[in-house]
Please model this.
Amino acid sequence: MKEKSLKKPTASLSHIAEAAGVSKMTVSRVLRDVDGFSEATREKVLREVEKSGYLPNRIAAAFGPSSASTLVGVCVPRMSSHFFGVVLDNIEHTFQRFGFQAIIGSHNQQVSEEELWLKNILAWRPAGVLLSSKHHSKGTLKLLKDAGIPVVEFWNLNTSPLSMSVGFNEYDSGFDMARYAILKGYKKAALLGSLQDWDSGRLDRFTGFEKCFTDAGGKIVHKDKLNDTPGFYSGFYGTENLLNRMQDVDMIYFQDDTMALGGLAWCQRKGIRVPEDIGIAGWGGHEAASILVERLTTTEVPMQKIGTLSAELLIRKLREEPTDDVTAVTAKLVEGTTL
Amino acid sequence: MKEKSLKKPTASLSHIAEAAGVSKMTVSRVLRDVDGFSEATREKVLREVEKSGYLPNRIAAAFGPSSASTLVGVCVPRMSSHFFGVVLDNIEHTFQRFGFQAIIGSHNQQVSEEELWLKNILAWRPAGVLLSSKHHSKGTLKLLKDAGIPVVEFWNLNTSPLSMSVGFNEYDSGFDMARYAILKGYKKAALLGSLQDWDSGRLDRFTGFEKCFTDAGGKIVHKDKLNDTPGFYSGFYGTENLLNRMQDVDMIYFQDDTMALGGLAWCQRKGIRVPEDIGIAGWGGHEAASILVERLTTTEVPMQKIGTLSAELLIRKLREEPTDDVTAVTAKLVEGTTL
DNA sequence: TTGAAAGCGCTAACAT
DNA sequence: ATGTTAGCGCTTTCAA
Model:
């Protein structure tokens, strides 16, 4: 019998109250710093709090009609993505600063998983939720409506958001890349992305790219949907697979920078010259994109800003301060040496 | 007046109970699937639950003496690290599967921030916590002891853990790398890492490296502590800075692979040959390490395994199933072409 | 198999 | 400036 089932020795408001010779209510007021106590009382109470090692019980506080929950749900495709990692760091840090706790989940690009996550999270009666992307299941929409809590859709911009949205125009970023590619003389492009992201309708950049590219006389010669998560590996092997089958391609537009860098590495190993033999374009603005000998042509997304703004916006809404429903940030093309 | 302050229209147990013509208690039993109801009752109840869109209130359930919290706190240095991103994905996924919710925070390698985070988290009365690394403040230790909840220290192994630990032997991984370097004939090594990680005592791999390297007749000619987070950039500029000042170096051991790859990129840009002019060793096993033309010599850490095991271990402990206190996973050296 | 009652820790509302 | 009361939604305990 190593650990006993411990009898909750935790001090509560009434213990403090008793020790300080005041009522629970007074202690509560002091701790929350709402007025209704004298300086002398305050000091007495705080001394007892200190002595007892009292830890507030937010479960109890969030319970009842007060319902002052400081929990916030955040859902992203996956945390191991560099992009979302940076966004999450900023979201979490901002919430922390303002006294909120983020409960983070991932949905792996499936709206059904997002819905499942949401159902679990709502059981904790969060003050609000942050959802990446604008794709949601019917069930998710209903749950959110019933919950009646503020929602921020972040990452790519939703111009008619459920409640608020922060992000960039993804379609345009692809469109711009196509214009640039055409300008550089490319005519035969392949698109390379992850099956799951693509088929769940999350690759608007490809749609924008295709539209501009074909309208300008270019041709999308191939679309390769890989049954794998985007990353250096999938970019590497995806490129190998693609170029072994298709020769008549003069550029590849990758889903993101990690894949593009994987593709670039494959080309370098094979002695395929970039951009002379084939052009490569990425997306996102990965740290590594700008330091390699061949600097990647890509679209830089302001990840930090998206994270911080999203969290701040939710907090403002909770405080009933005025907020913009739609906050656009710019994703801009950076010229490298690969396209 | 766009949004009213919503009067909690949420259905509760008693609503279901009334609609189904049974007592709250029966509904509770059905929903938790503990015995004490007939099949007929079950169906009646579930039908009403369905109809009403009832969402359980875990706050209320976690309240009171029952205290059946399914919240778990998880704290890592930062989420934007690829390593911890992968670990977190696996932790979160495992907890999700078993009905737990992870509250994730970051401490940016400062024990004081971990303590602050812990204090906030404990106010939510979590069932347990997962902490990366074995470095904690006195305050953290006291809080954990008072809370009396199970703790898993993950990432690098703590052989005398607070309660349980899952990880690799970091000292040994550096030791092994040094042995390998000596074998390859290197004599004059520089260490390059982030100031914050280093000074908070989190770079045992450097200690192990130095011990083995110097014992074998090598010399650590320089230790460069960068005031920046580890990453491609800091590796790139750190290398530039180091090699501009010091010529008499035949290898660099980097804090991690992202830094090493940044350093490698700088060398390639400058026409410095790797490993002929200088050897490079990384640590961690980043995806990109193995695909570039120069494959990085590094130590691969089983990140997925650490994440999954840590979560499973905590769950086992909560269920009072037998658990190992110390679970070692192996980090192994992989030969690349850079050292 | 079912129900009734008590109570968890806190805060809003209403005294004093 | 301070205290009292009531109740949030659920589960545990005890009774039927």
